[in-house]
Amino acid sequence: MSRGHYCVGLDIGSAEIRAVIAQEISRDDPLRVVGMGRTPSFGMRRGVVVDTDSVAKACNIALEQAERMAGHAAEDVVVSISGTEIICQNALGVVAVGRADGEVTEDDMTRVMDEVRARLTMPLNREIIHVIPRDYRLDDQKNIKDPLGMHGVRLEMNALIVSGSTSHLKNISRSLEQAGVSVENFVVEPIASAEAVLSTKQKELGAVLINIGGSTTSMVVFEDGDLLHLSILPVGSGHITNDIAIGLRTSIEVAEAVKLQYGSALPDEIGKKDEVDLSLFDSQEDAVVSRQHIAEIIEARFEEILNVVNSELKSIGREELLPGGAILTGGGALLPGAVELAKRVLRLPVQIGYPKPLGGILDQVDTPQFATVVGLLLLAQANRVNKHTFSPNMMHGMMMKVRRLAKKFLP
Ligand SMILES: Nc1ncnc2c1ncn2[C@@H]1O[C@H](COP(=O)(O)OP(=O)(O)OP(=O)(O)O)[C@@H](O)[C@H]1O
Ligand SMILES: [Mg+2]
Question: Which pTM does this prediction carry?
Answer without folding.
Answer: 0.92
